[in-house]
Amino acid sequence: MEGVDHLAHERNKSEFDVDAMKIVWAGSPHAFVVSDRISKLVASDPGFRKDNRSTLSRKELFKNTLRKAAYAWKTIIDLHLSEEEAAKLRFYVDEPAFTDVHWGMFIPAIKGQGTEEQQQKWLPLAYKMQIIGCYAQTELGHGSNVQGLETTATFDPQTDEFIIHSPTLTSSKWWPGGLGKVATHAIAYALLIVGGREQGVHGFIVQLRSLEDHSPLPGMTVGDIGMKFGNGAYNAMDNGVLRFDHVRIPRNQMLMRCAQYTCLCMPSDAKLILEPCILIRVSQVTCEGKYKQSDVPRQLVYGAMLYVRQTIVADASCALSRAVCIATRYSAVRRQFGSQNGGPETQVIDYKTQQSRLFPLLASAYAFRFVGEWLKWLYADVTQRLQANDFSTLPEAHACTAGLKSLTTTATADGIEECRKLCGGHGYLCSSGLPELFAVYVPACTYEGENTVLLLQVARFLMKTVSQLGSSKKPVGTIAYMTRVEHLMQCRCGVQRGFAELSADLVEAAVAHCQLLVVSKFIEKLQQEIPGKGVKQQLEVLCNIYALFLLHKHQGDFLSTGCITPKHAALANDELRSLYSQVRPNAIALVDAFNYTDHYLGSILGCYDGNVYPKLYEAAWKDPLNESVVPDGYHQYIRPLLKQEIRTARL
Ligand SMILES: CCCCCCCC/C=C\CCCCCCCCCCCCCC(=O)SCCNC(=O)CCNC(=O)[C@H](O)C(C)(C)COP(=O)(O)OP(=O)(O)OC[C@H]1O[C@@H](n2cnc3c(N)ncnc32)[C@H](O)[C@@H]1OP(=O)(O)O
Ligand SMILES: Cc1cc2nc3c(=O)[nH]c(=O)nc-3n(C[C@H](O)[C@H](O)[C@H](O)COP(=O)(O)OP(=O)(O)OC[C@H]3O[C@@H](n4cnc5c(N)ncnc54)[C@H](O)[C@@H]3O)c2cc1C
């Protein structure tokens, strides 16, 4: 029935103030108002329709994405949207596109590593989208190993230029989003060679295509790398390949500042505002061909990665909460077995097995939300310190962004797939929204740092900390707890080649460290004042579920290290079951608190009114295969088969 809320009985059960929880989820009353307004704006505008994506061919999908990006930009300009509103618009439009990399990587890289002159020249063009940039780091042969990149940038003092060249097939740039068909410019990473000496990998601003007719400039071979995982989904993005054949660029297009971290955001009026900055020596190539080494950590060249990893953590809770919202609503609608005296069957959400799979994911979505908020704060803090020439917290910020990026994206990708399974057969339909969500999300485990490679970075940081225990350098911040494990210093293992040989175990330790971070940031959140009837209590239940679920899942480790006894393990399990029962009446309200529109969810199974079956039935008839009753190919293939004429037919 249209207009009837099939989940009303569920909503009536809730024991807390959903509107207050919406504000907790959004981060502040202001953030809620902005998010709510922009999500409704996008949902009500047919220009942002997305329900037909899975039936489009790659070319149609890509062109439609170009149209949407242009339309989004026009909307931003026409409505004078602020940066915050524009970012929300991008989020709710919900389509991977070249604009993500332009705003999310190209601009931050120039802001983080460009000199003031470079920023003054390039940023106004980029902010107005008069140039479109991509981030060309990865090559066919090397992604994780950035120091192994083969593209060269050789300085020619005769002409005061760099010659950018791809010397081998494996040095071809491969993967950069937006590169394939759209970007006019790239930040290309290349091995700097000055006076015959290699000086490490640096970033260079390189124009790729003509601003007149979009044709590749001389010396560039550029194109799309082809179809990716999943129909529709990430294929809206033109991940590209690029080869340079002795391309010359002026010397002033090498990104020469490693140190300056400015606030990585777009001014609301799209005009460039340059904050006064502290002058820090930069890596430079002079016109005489002298390389001047920066006196700040070379890792600052990875600044854009730190920023993007932090945004990826913030995004993880969005993707996971979206899948959980779909699976929770559908689990309340779906009934199987258990009818008593002809009454209704049991809602599948009432099965303890369903709860034990679903509710930890619901708790994780909230947990990731809060750790994402904290990471944003940490990033702002390290940025401020760097501006004051204080590099002391950079290793910790790197470990936190890398580790949490790895932990949250892995859990989110796995969680989306689990939500699909929680929806049974219907979860496999594209109209459930879950296959596409998974296909779009899962590369987050690989891009911006492959997840295991990032965990190894965390492990390295932890081992460094352990090796300093007992010295005058006391661990602080997120590793302060290590003072309580000084006995580790007494542990020795006889394994040769130490770190490499034990890396699989060290990765597990890194995961445990990151999980501890998530739990402790959830607990810290609960120590704040949280207004709204019953809101804090619900969050406490979710926090306990998150922590106890981890303990239950890893009880072997806890038991084998003597941290808990079998009795503790059994108690934890009993408590988990009790917590699931406490969440059950509030489950629908807890996902309503995400405040997602049906447009954003893009799922018949997750629609707000729970009117799933008529919508599924109706949607099936809209499939292109149902445009004709007798399919194309009947006369050629089916009829001859049925008539046993197949042996004589020309196939
Ligand atoms: C429609 C219109 C819309 C308009 C909208 C307007 C407004 C919109 C506003 C905002 C939009 C935002 C949108 C954001 C969306 C973002 C989308 C993102 C899409 C993602 C695309 C994907 C991009 C990519 O994948 S780019 C390529 C990424 N590549 C990698 O990540 C490579 C991974 N490898 C590495 O990071 C490194 O090589 C390494 C760390 C693995 C190893 O480094 P190394 O070789 O130097 O080796 P070491 O291990 O020796 O390390 C040395 C030393 O350095 C330390 N270190 C390493 N990295 C860092 C770092 N990043 N920071 C600080 N320190 C670092 C390391 O710990 C070592 O330290 P020691 O002390 O131990 O020596
Ligand atoms: C959808 C998508 C979009 C992307 N967009 C961009 C972009 O815009 N710009 C850009 O420059 N790049 C982009 N990339 C590339 C991406 O950043 C790399 O693919 C990523 O960094 C992983 O590197 P790799 O492909 O070399 O993986 P590899 O490093 O080859 O990984 C293969 C396997 O080897 C393992 N491994 C590697 N090194 C080690 C080690 N030291 N110890 C133990 N195990 C190891 C990994 O764990 C993994 O299991 C994108 C990738 C994808 C999938």
Automatic annotation (TrEMBL):
Q: Please state the protein's primary subcellular location.
A: other
Q: Which GO terms describe its molecular function?
A: acyl-CoA oxidase activity; FAD binding; fatty acid binding
| Tagged with keyword Oxidoreductase | yes
Per UniProt, FAD binds at: T138, G177
Q: What cofactors does the UniProt entry give for this protein?
A: FAD
**Acyl-CoA oxidase C-terminal domain: from which residue to which, for each copy?**
486-643
Q: Which InterPro entries match?
A: ACOX_C_alpha1 (IPR055060), Acyl-CoA_ox_N (IPR029320), Acyl-CoA_Oxase/DH_mid-dom_sf (IPR046373), Acyl-CoA_oxidase (IPR012258), Acyl-CoA_oxidase_C (IPR002655), AcylCo_DH-like_C (IPR036250), AcylCoA_DH/ox_N_sf (IPR037069), AcylCoA_DH/oxidase_NM_dom_sf (IPR009100)
One Gene Ontology cellular component annotation?
peroxisome
What residues does the Acyl-coenzyme A oxidase N-terminal domain cover? Answer: 17-132
In Pfam terms, one family for this protein is ACOX
- Write out the catalytic residues in the record: E448 (proton acceptor)
Question: Is Cytoplasm there in the keyword field?
Answer: no
GO process annotations (BP): fatty acid beta-oxidation using acyl-CoA oxidase; lipid homeostasis; long-chain fatty acid metabolic process
The Acyl-CoA oxidase C-alpha1 domain is annotated at: 302-463
Q: List keywords of the entry alphabetically.
A: FAD, Fatty acid metabolism, Flavoprotein, Lipid metabolism, Oxidoreductase, Peroxisome
Intracellular or extracellular location(s):
Peroxisome
The UniProt similarity line reads: Belongs to the acyl-CoA oxidase family.
This one is known as: Acyl-coenzyme A oxidase
> Upper lineage ranks?
Eukaryota, Viridiplantae, Streptophyta, Embryophyta, Tracheophyta
